[in-house]
Design brief:
Length: 649
């Protein structure tokens, strides 16, 4: 164990194990998680040490080998794909496996939108992996605008079949995970046509490849879309269908019927699978940022560089600027942990209502999940980059561990709903509630009360240590943004602009409003979650400091908003900044212990910089020696080098 990390751990003022159990939910949950991880990490198939020395094809093949191992493990341990245990195993691999979409979207779409009869037929096949499916919605020409999708499913009454067709090149399905080479089925989003009329997007189960030899079926043109930023293990694919016929029974008809068309009670119920993933992504944002913070904090405690006082080369974690970069990332990871818990609670509640036939809450769920998905993924992507940059040159090495998860996570600003679009969808719901405050859900209850101008009676740094005053500050900031934007929208329509054009004209202000609302929700949920949790006073002291840092840092980061709202003045902003410096100092002694409480196994982080023992330099050198270029002392390409050296300029 590197001496600096040992010393850091000895200085901690709270019990790390207590925080590990608190973040896991309980001691039993911690034990179960570690047991599941051990099953994976002790299996050499899940190795990744040579991850950046193998080709895309080898990466994909490894992905299938891991999938086989994971599936065999689940079968041996009787772990179901829709269980929390599987979700834990899946995130522990920290990379998307080729059959990933089968589990997170293909099966859930059938489960959520299939009739009882269709579920009886398809779910056993899918859960036993007799068939492997993906969720094929996005097309070359459209990903966001679902009503603009071009794939057609035309009902042929005479044969009781649907004819599924890609009429144009832009209608080719493009991006679905596992589509290129892995899956032999897909749930296809297509415009339903029956008796010459279009009834909008519905979901259809289509077989793509033979179950005997995996060859594409007649009318199916299919393949991998090529290399991407990340998701290298996943064969995101393209698919063109040339009048492929499927049985009538292959349209998922829990909520709509094709023959003598019966529409769903709420057409957006077809969008339900996307909502479920957006909900998961809020918690994933916490995991990713916690992992990045762990690497950066441990490395910053070990890395000694330059001098504060002559002759003393301190750990870079002693630099206030380094603390100002990294401690807010720890705080944000914990804030998003509690936001993820909230999202899952709301989702489970709405799901049970939907299964009882009450669809009214799906609009609220969409409004909340779309906003938090956008806010937490945007923030965590930026936070990972702050952590990486805080590690200097070695942060730029693949040995740092950052790239492996960052390259997948970058996509979270786009997949499952491009973030700007998601913000605007959430804003659509927010402004509806602003106009009808009585219909506002609990998360927007502050819209119900008259907007009275408030002054922040903060006179000293201690006043910015109060959860209630901080929550009020974020509430007033959001209200100020929302009410001024609502006024702008009203003026635009008052002077003759139609609602849609007015919405577009005001969309930058709308974006600021929904972001301010999401930020307010995260702060309020974070502080209320801590208030409801039982913990020892030493731990509460640490958790309070971290939560106060999250809120005060947020005020400093968006000081203009708080000043513009009239709720705060320049002097109070300076009090907030003084509070931040005081909190950085208070958190410094526990920084390593807090990231230890995220409890990441070294084999999850796979980082020479973030390993638990802090033995950074030996790991970096060991990793470098793995480089293929070092297989020989003189590389075989020397012949070219020699000519360069011998050539005359
Ligand atoms: C730790 C490591 C983790 C690594 C990563 C982990 C996981 C990775 C996960 C995913 C990656 C892998 C796969 C990715 C898969 C995909 O990306 S699948 C495709 C995703 N695509 C989208 O999200 C498309 C986005 N577009 C839309 O959802 C719709 O087009 C949009 C909502 C933007 C507009 O729909 P439209 O039909 O045009 O509606 P309108 O704008 O006319 O009206 C909106 C009304 O509809 C309500 N509504 C919209 N969506 C929903 C919904 N999902 N649920 C309920 N209600 C919805 C909305 O509230 C409006 O209602 P009102 O009319 O206002 O009452
Ligand atoms: C790694 C990865 C995996 C994926 N896996 C799948 C999958 O398994 N299945 C699947 O079906 N899809 C998948 N997708 C596709 C993904 O869902 C879409 O890319 C995503 O929905 C965004 O749609 P788009 O690409 O059409 O972006 P666009 O909507 O074309 O975005 C381009 C720009 O237009 C802006 N824009 C678009 N509409 C509006 C609007 N109304 N108002 C303001 N601005 C707007 C956006 O903000 C953005 O800046 C995946 C994508 C990635 C990156």
């Amino acid at each position: 164990m590197d001496a600096p990390l040992l010393k850091e751990r000895e200085r901690a003022t709270f019990n790390v194990t207590e925080l590990i159990h608190l973040l896991n939910g309980s001691e039993e949950e911690t034990k179960r998680r570690k047991e599941l991880e051990s099953w994976l990490y002790n299996n050499p198939v899940f190795r990744q040490d040579d991850r950046y020395q193998i080709s895309r094809e080898e990466v994909y093949e490894r992905g299938l080998q891991k999938t086989r191992e994971l599936v065999n493990l689940c079968r041996r341990k009787n772990i179901k794909f829709d269980s929390l245990d599987f979700a834990r195993l899946n995130i522990s691999t920290l990379e998307e496996l080729p059959f990933f979409l089968h589990v997170i979207m293909f099966i859930p779409t059938i489960r959520g939108q299939g009739t009882e009869e269709q579920k009886r037929k398809w779910l056993p096949l899918a859960e036993d992996l007799k068939i492997l499916g993906t969720y094929a919605q996005t097309e070359l020409g459209h990903g966001t605008f679902l009503r603009g999708l071009e794939t057609k499913a035309t009902y042929d009454v005479s044969s009781r079949e649907f004819i599924v067709n890609s009429p144009t090149i832009t209608s080719m399905k493009w991006w679905p995970g596992g589509l290129g080479k892995t899956c032999n089925y897909a749930v296809i989003a297509a415009q339903l046509y029956t008796k010459g009329k279009c009834y909008g997007i519905h979901m259809f189960i289509v077989q793509l490849r033979s179950l005997e030899d995996h060859k594409p079926l007649p009318g199916v043109t299919i393949g991998d879309i090529g290399n991407k930023y990340g998701f290298h293990t996943v064969d995101n694919g393209f698919l063109r269908l040339d009048n492929v016929r499927i049985p009538y029974e292959n349209m998922l008809m829990r909520y709509a019927k094709a023959c003598d068309y019966i529409p769903p009670v709420n057409p957006k119920i077809n969008y339900g699978t996307m909502t479920s993933i957006r909900v998961d992504l809020v918690k994933d944002a916490s995991v990713i940022l916690a992992a990045a913070s762990t690497i950066a904090i441990r490395y910053s405690a070990v890395r000694h560089q330059t001098e504060i006082r002559p002759g003393e080369e301190p750990p870079v974690l002693d630099y206030i600027t380094q603390q100002f970069k990294l401690f807010p990332q720890i705080a944000t990871a914990i804030a998003f942990h509690f936001a993820g818990d909230y999202m899952h609670r709301i989702y489970d509640k709405v799901q049970s209502e939907i299964f009882d036939g009450h669809l009214s809450a799906i609009t609220e769920l969409h409004g909340i999940s779309a906003g938090l998905k956008a806010f937490t993924t945007d923030t965590s992507i930026a936070g990972v980059e702050i952590c990486r940059r805080a590690c200097g040159g070695h942060g730029y090495s693949n040995a740092s561990g950052f790239q492996r998860f960052y390259e997948n996570w970058l996509g979270s600003a786009t997949y499952e709903g491009e973030n700007t679009v998601m913000y605007l969808q959430a804003a659509r719901y927010l402004f509806k509630c602003y106009d009808n405050p009585k219909e506002a859900p609990e998360t927007m209850s502050y819209l119900r009360y008259p907007q009275n101008k408030m002054e922040w009676n903060v006179k000293s740094a201690d006043d910015v240590s109060n959860y209630a005053t901080l929550i009020t500050a974020f509430e007033q900031r959001a209200l100020s943004k929302i009410s001024s934007t609502a006024k702008k929208l009203k003026n635009l329509t008052h002077y003759g602009m139609n609602r849609n054009d007015a919405w577009n004209a005001a969309s930058v202000d709308i974006l600021h409003s929904i972001k301010a609302h999401c930020h307010y929700f995260i702060v309020k949920n974070y502080m209320q979650s801590l208030n409801h949790l039982k913990m020892s006073s030493p731990l509460r002291q640490v958790m309070t400091a971290v939560a106060l840092l999250y809120a005060n840092y947020g005020i400093d980061e968006h000081a203009g908003d708080f000043l513009e709202s009239g709720f705060m003045n320049g002097k109070q902003i300076n009090l907030v900044r003084a509070k931040i410096l005081q909190l950085l100092k208070e958190i410094r002694v526990n920084a390593v212990a807090i990231v230890d409480s995220f409890d990441f196994d070294d084999r999850f982080l796979r980082s020479a910089l973030g390993a638990y023992d802090g033995n950074v330099y030996n790991r970096l050198f060991k990793w470098a020696k793995l480089s293929p270029l070092n297989k020989t002392e003189v590389h075989s390409s020397y012949k070219y080098l020699r000519r360069i050296l011998q050539s005359k300029l």
